[in-house]
Amino acid sequence: MSLFETYLRLGFHHFVNIYSYCHILFILALCAGYSLKQINKVLVLILAFTVGHSITLALGVFRILTIPKDLISFLIPATIFIIALANVIPLKAKNNRFIYIITLLFGLIHGFAFSNYLKAHLGSESNIATPLFAFNIGLEIGQLVVLTAYFLILFLTVQVFKVKHDFWRIFISGIAFGISLLLLLQTGRSFF
């Protein structure tokens, strides 16, 4: 197996791995606030998230910018908590640019978690650019798999079984809210 393929698989498995459920939970919470008719907005949000995490993944791997792991471990569930809460608060922001900027910022936070994971696997690799690129592509493929599964289940739930999107939004957001709250309490102990 080539170096590229090794890190491509590593990136993919990191995103779709059950132990990396925070990233999946973030994507699900992010999507839950939007209906099937708003898929274009979701794709722009995912692009913003991708740009954000790609930037800090590179900055972290090249050791240009580092953030303490404990802080990142706290901020990841905070991003999920905020998105889940925003999905159930009736005050929906009218300004899409603001939502895209927030998603980009949250992507920056998730990118540091990705970089910590990748740095742990790089060891003494002399060529960091190829593993970094392959890992990031693997993450994106994993993200696309999660998005495809999400929208397929959303379609079946809303269109076939006629479940109202509001129920779906609150159900997914409630799960994300509960899990992220528990993670915040767990990871917040190191700060308080």
Explain how this protein is built.
The chain has 192 residues and is mainly α. It is 79% helix and 0% strand. It has helices at residues 3-16, 21-32, 39-61, 69-88, 96-122, 129-160, 165-188. α2 (21-32) runs antiparallel to α7 and α3 (39-61) packs parallel to α5. The longest helix has 32 residues, at 129-160.
What are the salient characteristics of this protein?
single chain, mainly alpha, 7 helices, globular
List the helices and strands and how they pair.
Blueprint: H1 3-16, H2 21-32, H3 39-61, H4 69-88, H5 96-122, H6 129-160, H7 165-188
Helix pairs in contact: 1-6, 2-4, 2-6, 2-7, 3-5, 4-5, 4-7
Gist?
The chain is mostly helical and 192 residues long. It is built from 7 helices and no strands.
Kindly state the mean pLDDT as a whole number?
92
Q: Please outline the major beta sheet.
A: none
**Low-pLDDT ranges:** none
Count of strand segments:
0
The helicity comes to over 70%
- Our count of helices gives 7
Structural class: mainly alpha
